[in-house]
Amino acid sequence: MFLHKLTQPLKKATLLGVAFLLPLLAIAQNPNVGTDDGSDDRLRVIAIFAHPDDADSKMGGTAALMAQMGHAVKFVSITSGDAGHQSQGGGALAKRRRAEAQEAGRRLGIDEYVVLDNHDGELLPELHIRQQVIREIRKWNADVVLGLRPNDYHPDHRYAGVLVQDAAYMVVVPNVTPDTPPLKKNPVFLYMNDRFQKPNPFSHDIVVGIDDVLETKVRGLDAHVSQMYEWLPWVNGTLEDVPETSQERIQWMMDRRTSWSRVSDEQRASMIKWYGEEKGSQFQHAESFEICEYGYQPTEEDIRRIFPMFDQP
After folding, report:
1. Which residues of 196-222 are buried (b: 16+ CB within 10 A; e: fewer)?
2. pTM for the complete prediction?
3. Does 243 reside within a domain?
4. Which domain does 193 fall in, by range?
5. Could you give the CA distance from residue 273 to residue 22 in angstroms, rounded to a whole number?
6. Domain of 141: which CATH number?
7. Number of domains in the chain
8. CA-CA distance, 110 to 105, in Å (whole number)?
9. N or C: which end of the chain has fewer CB within 10 A?
10. What is the per-residue pLDDT across 53-107, written as a single tens digit (0 to 9) for each?
11. Which residues have CB under 8 Å from 137's CB, separation 6+?
């Protein structure tokens, strides 16, 4: 139960891990994690988003830190990503992206990376997909759920955000999706960072410094070869700039992510609140989270349990 876990000391996770493939799902799983019913005592975190690589970009550093500090962390992509490429598509691309997600999860050190079998570019907030989201949250016995805000340039991102919002209360209702047991407590729901201003700008309620794991985040993104070095550069007109060798690509990605993750003034103010003046002023790179009004409303003590890095020396 969430409130019980937040009053217990956090346990350290071991670093052993193993990756394997399940039908219709791509999963990178740590064998030391408890069963999906959450029978271990670790705080259980699940991020749910539209495409393989979404959460890696928005919270890959925080996920790596959480895993290192003992949380059970799971990523769930609602679509298979089978449309995100300029020359590949369909089942072959979906298979490739599942394998990339599996490797990215291994590099980040998270417990599972699941890719559901819904088509990329066609996501809608339909009941059967909401039920999939509810099942994933329940099966993970989630204490914390992270999603996207429903204002974004990409319709899949918008509707992935709506689907997570629509699951927020329903995960505790026994007669909704009755094939999986309801949660006993509504989790904390958080939004991952975005830069969209309308209808309202992102609120940097919680900001995590990721300087120590920036390279880990970049190496996780590096696993998504079809996106980082092919599709996204093609869309942005920079495909000719992509280096040829693996090591050069890592450095190229590091240079780009170093620029994108620079701490803003709004982030700095929040970091000083959570880390204190001295430490909060030192970070150069960060990831932000906004508290969603639909879930359990965490106290400051709760937030420090979810983000134990705030209280580390």
Report:
1. eeeeeebebbbbbbbeebbbbbbbbbb
2. 0.88
3. no
4. 2-207+289-307
5. 43
6. 3.40.50.10320
7. 1
8. 6
9. C
10. 999 999 999 999 999 999 999 999 999 999 999 999 999 999 999 999 999 999 9
11. 46, 48, 145, 167, 171, 183, 187
